[in-house]
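TA notes, week 10

Several of you asked for a full example with nothing omitted. So below is the full record: structure tokens for the whole chain, then the designed sequence directly under it. When grading your own attempts, check the secondary structure regions first.
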């Protein structure tokens, strides 16, 4: 069996890093995803925000802590971590007394989609997209 989740969104707060007793770095942060649609009954636009709690481990945790900050756009690939007792999202009670749920992801990969000082997307300088520089028309083989 296999599961994978991919989430693209913005950090809701600055990352928090800590070290496990064995020295492994762990960074935690929250990511908000947004969805907009038009309600068929009322014809009004509806906005929905879903929050995910992310944990990143090892060297990637140190990198995420160094370069990410509140508001930055990221793509996270990983696995959902269910509540150990129920196998569902973690349930908790908010300050106003309402029951809320938390979707938790253990990240396998975190990609930075916006630059350190910018809010927009950028092409990564290495890895995927590194060879995607604009070509002259003469160089296109067809």
């Amino acid at each position: 069996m296999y599961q994978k989740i991919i989430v693209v969104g913005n950090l809701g707060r600055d990352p928090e890093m800590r070290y496990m007793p064995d020295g492994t770095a762990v960074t935690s942060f929250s990511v908000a995803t947004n969805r907009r649609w038009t309600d068929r009954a009322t014809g009004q636009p509806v906005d929905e925000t879903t929050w995910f709690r992310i944990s990143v481990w090892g060297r990637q945790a140190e990198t995420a802590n160094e370069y990410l900050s509140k508001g930055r756009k990221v793509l996270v690939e990983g696995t959902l971590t269910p509540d150990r007792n129920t196998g569902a999202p973690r349930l908790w009670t908010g300050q106003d007394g309402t029951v809320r749920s938390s979707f938790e992801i253990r990240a396998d990969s975190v990609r930075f989609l916006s630059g350190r000082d910018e809010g927009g997307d950028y092409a990564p300088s290495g890895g995927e997209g590194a060879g995607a520089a604009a070509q002259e028309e003469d160089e296109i083989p067809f």
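The domain at 5-123 is CATH 2.40.50.140 (OB fold (Dihydrolipoamide Acetyltransferase, E2P)). Use that as a sanity check on your answer.
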